Structure formats: structure tokens, C-alpha cells
Amino acid sequence: MKILIIDDHQPTLALLSAIIKKGGYEPVTASQGAEALDVIRGEDIGVVFTDLVMPGMDGLTFLQEAKGVDAELPVIMMTGQGSVETAVEAMRRGAEDYLSKPIKRDEVLVQIERALEKRKLLRENRELKGELADRYTFETIIGNSRKMQEVFKLIAKVADVDSTVLIRGENGTGKDLVAKAIHYNSKRKDGPFVKIDCTALPEGLLESELFGYKKGAFTGAHRDKPGRVENADGGTLFLDEISELDLPLQAKILRLIQEHRFERLGENQVRDVNIRIVASTNRDLEKEMEEGRFRRDLFYRLNVVPITLPPLREREGDIIIITKALLERTCQRYNRRLEGISQGAVEALERYPWPGNVRELENLIERMVVLTDGDKVNVTLENLPETILAAEDGFLGHAVAQGLSLDELEREYIKAVLARTSGHKAEAAQILGINRKTLLEKRKRYNLE
Ligand SMILES: Nc1ncnc2c1ncn2[C@@H]1O[C@H](COP(=O)(O)OP(=O)(O)O)[C@@H](O)[C@H]1O
Ligand SMILES: [Mg+2]
């Protein structure tokens, strides 16, 4: 490992070089700051010792320049006796340490070791974080549509503040992905991301899973166990499908949000926890509240920042982008070569309403790639499944896309026929195959008057 020494005083260079060589490192010397910067740019230097007062560039200026070349390069400032102030100033500007003259051998070697160790840790840490952050950058959420751009903006905005976030959207629209993106782009990213799927466990188990329990709290509780809430301390707790919690559990979550406090089951001790809560739902929470299944106060607490993911069919242009990206990824995974995708297939995919959203598209692509004979994948109309091809265009396609109920469909149709007949009821009744009285009743029921 090379150690760079900068000093205009030849005997100091010689002394330090000798110490460094004895310590098993390779000394490199420079008598001026400018020269030293060239060395840093050209060679892999582990630690730098620089004199403070030199002709030309002084030590503090060199420090600043050197940080511009390599922000993590440890620079140790050498100072004459009694210049503690300057040493402190150097540390404030990013020097790793300072070495006061006269130079002591042991001190030099300890400083080198410490600086190298710290640098190694920094590097490892950065690599680890880089890996994690890369996995959840916005790149993994594919989409160019205006609606998704809005979502990206919201994610960027809420990631930094510590507020509670409610992610809404149909199944398969990417709620999990967004929850992770929020966590890994927030200042909690080095803390844990803990997800709890509220649909996965029956209520009793869910509660102990969330809050943990004390030994003996119930049969089978053989030891104390922390819950997911505690596991998430310092990070983010993702409550997936929160509408599935029963009312008592909703009350406990409300307290957790308001007070950052909870108790393990069977224990009286109140525990504090530092978590951010992100929740998701695919349900109409307004309706759940009206029907008394979801607490209003919890809703308002959660809904501080709502992010609503549009269904895939409403993201203009995204179906094809996502299809191509997923095809490439899946072909790679299964060692197939992607030949192409025909225009007809593209149109069919765009016409289909995707009730299962991106998850459905992902499954379709995986199935197609796996079922392909040979190693080339070619997506054409012929190898798209029947369900995709059968998707109706026009009115029915629209109805399916909107997920209309039979009543809603009837209302839409009656409205359209009345418009067609310019409000002529007898004519409309005839087209609809019902009598005038029934038409009037339906018109009233559907508020079409
Ligand atoms: N915009 C997107 N780009 C790429 N993949 C996506 C996108 N949205 C969702 N996915 C993928 O689709 C699947 C379903 O997403 P998920 O986040 O689990 O949906 P949800 O939680 O809303 O049901 C996941 O495998 C996810 O990686
Ligand atoms: Mg989900």
C-alpha cells in the first residue's frame, strides 16, 4: 500500500519515508501540493501525510483539492508545535487526523493503520448499500406514462419526510414495489424494511406476530418473542392490505402511529419504537368506513400522504414498455433468446383490460417464455393465450376495463340508447325489449331523468 508524504523540508521526508518503509508500506514523496495532486490522480494512494505550511499550495488548500479528486482519501495534516488551532481547522475541513511534530514513529504507524481500516469499512459499506439501493431504484418500477410520472414524483417527495403513507391500487399494480421504493429512498434505508401481510394470518396470530408476546401469554408461548413492530425499529413497517385488520387491531395500530408505543401480548410494559408506517390497500376504504369495518381516525392518520397507483390499462404506453422489459428479463433468466414481438401482439396486449394488472402481465410473460419450444422467443398473435385475444374492444371492453357491475352496465346501456333515440321513450323501450313503464322505473332508479 502506497503512502504519500508531502513536505518541502527534505529531512522530514526522509524520516517519514524510513518509518513508513519499516512499517511495511511503500512511501511516495512530493515536495509541493501541485505535484502531490498529480500523484493522487495517477496512483492508488492509501493515506496522505501533508505539511501544513509549504511554499506554493498550503496544506489546507491541498486538502480541499485532494478531496475533490477522491473524497474518501484520508489526509493527515502535519503541524508544528503549538498550532493546535490550525490542526482543528484542518479536521473540520475533512482531514482524517493530525500529526504534531516532532514526529513519533509509533504514532505514524497507528494513524496509517486506523485510516486504512476506516477506508476499507467505508468502501464495504458503500458497496453493500449501493447493491441494496440499486435493487429498488425507480428503474425497477417501469413506466413512462403521465400517471406513473406523477407517482414517481410523489414517491420522491414522501420518501424523505417521515410521514405515514397509504398506497392504494388494484391487485398487482405495484404497491409492494412502491413501499420498498419509499423505504430504500428514505433516510431510514439503512434500517430494516419489515413487511407484514395482513391477509396471510388469522387475527389472533396476526396480533402476536405484530406485537410479540411474553412467555406464557397464551398456550404455545414458550418464550418471550419480539414482534414485527420491534423488528422494524429504526426502519419502515409495511402493513400490506391493512383493511384486513379487525377493529381491535386497528385501534392498536392507531396507537402505534400516534404514540409510537405498544405492548407485547401478556405484558404490561409499554415499549417505545421508532418506525415509519407505510400501509397498502386494494379496497375502497371510504366504503369500508361507511360500513363500519374500518376506523375513521385510523384512515385519517394513514391518509396523510396517499399514493394511488393507476390500473395498468390506464397507463398509456406502459403496457408495451413493461412487456418488453419483462420479456428481456425473463428470457435471460430462462436462457432464451428474444427474437421480437409482432405489431398484432402489441395491439392485442394493449386492448386487453388487465384486471390483474402488472402481476397478470408478468405471469403471462413467464408462461409464454417457459412454454416456448426451442430457445428463441417470438411473441405473435398466434401464441398469445385465448383470454387475451378474446378481450372485447369498444363498449364491452370498456365495461370490463372499468369493472362495471351488471347494474352499472344496465345504466350505461339505457343511457346510451336514450341518447341514440334523442330521449324518445317508446322507441328506446322497443330497442331494449322492455315496456315503457319498466323503462320509466329504471330511468328513475338509475337517476337518468
Ligand atoms: N411498474 C412496474 N414495473 C415492473 N414490474 C412491476 C411494476 N409494477 C408491478 N410490478 C411487478 O408486478 C408484480 C406485482 O406487484 P406488487 O407490488 O406485488 O403489486 P400489489 O402489491 O399492488 O399487488 C411484482 O412482481 C412486481 O415486481
Ligand atoms: Mg401487495
TrEMBL record:
<dbReference type="Pfam" id="PF00158">
    <property type="entry name" value="Sigma54_activat"/>
</dbReference>
<dbReference type="InterPro" id="IPR011006">
    <property type="entry name" value="CheY-like_superfamily"/>
</dbReference>
<dbReference type="GO" id="GO:0000160">
    <property type="term" value="P:phosphorelay signal transduction system"/>
</dbReference>
<dbReference type="Pfam" id="PF25601">
    <property type="entry name" value="AAA_lid_14"/>
</dbReference>
<dbReference type="InterPro" id="IPR002197">
    <property type="entry name" value="HTH_Fis"/>
</dbReference>
<dbReference type="Pfam" id="PF02954">
    <property type="entry name" value="HTH_8"/>
</dbReference>
<keyword id="KW-0547">Nucleotide-binding</keyword>
<dbReference type="GO" id="GO:0006355">
    <property type="term" value="P:regulation of DNA-templated transcription"/>
</dbReference>
<feature type="modified residue" description="4-aspartylphosphate">
    <location>
        <position position="51"/>
    </location>
</feature>
<keyword id="KW-0238">DNA-binding</keyword>
<dbReference type="Pfam" id="PF00072">
    <property type="entry name" value="Response_reg"/>
</dbReference>
<feature type="domain" description="Response regulatory">
    <location>
        <begin position="2"/>
        <end position="116"/>
    </location>
</feature>
<dbReference type="InterPro" id="IPR001789">
    <property type="entry name" value="Sig_transdc_resp-reg_receiver"/>
</dbReference>
<protein>
    <recommendedName>
        <fullName>Sigma-54-dependent Fis family transcriptional regulator</fullName>
    </recommendedName>
</protein>
<dbReference type="GO" id="GO:0043565">
    <property type="term" value="F:sequence-specific DNA binding"/>
</dbReference>
<dbReference type="InterPro" id="IPR009057">
    <property type="entry name" value="Homeodomain-like_sf"/>
</dbReference>
<dbReference type="GO" id="GO:0005524">
    <property type="term" value="F:ATP binding"/>
</dbReference>
<dbReference type="InterPro" id="IPR025944">
    <property type="entry name" value="Sigma_54_int_dom_CS"/>
</dbReference>
<dbReference type="InterPro" id="IPR027417">
    <property type="entry name" value="P-loop_NTPase"/>
</dbReference>
<keyword id="KW-0805">Transcription regulation</keyword>
<dbReference type="InterPro" id="IPR002078">
    <property type="entry name" value="Sigma_54_int"/>
</dbReference>
<dbReference type="InterPro" id="IPR003593">
    <property type="entry name" value="AAA+_ATPase"/>
</dbReference>
<keyword id="KW-0067">ATP-binding</keyword>
<dbReference type="InterPro" id="IPR058031">
    <property type="entry name" value="AAA_lid_NorR"/>
</dbReference>
<keyword id="KW-0597">Phosphoprotein</keyword>
<dbReference type="InterPro" id="IPR025943">
    <property type="entry name" value="Sigma_54_int_dom_ATP-bd_2"/>
</dbReference>
<keyword id="KW-0804">Transcription</keyword>
<feature type="domain" description="Sigma-54 factor interaction">
    <location>
        <begin position="141"/>
        <end position="370"/>
    </location>
</feature>
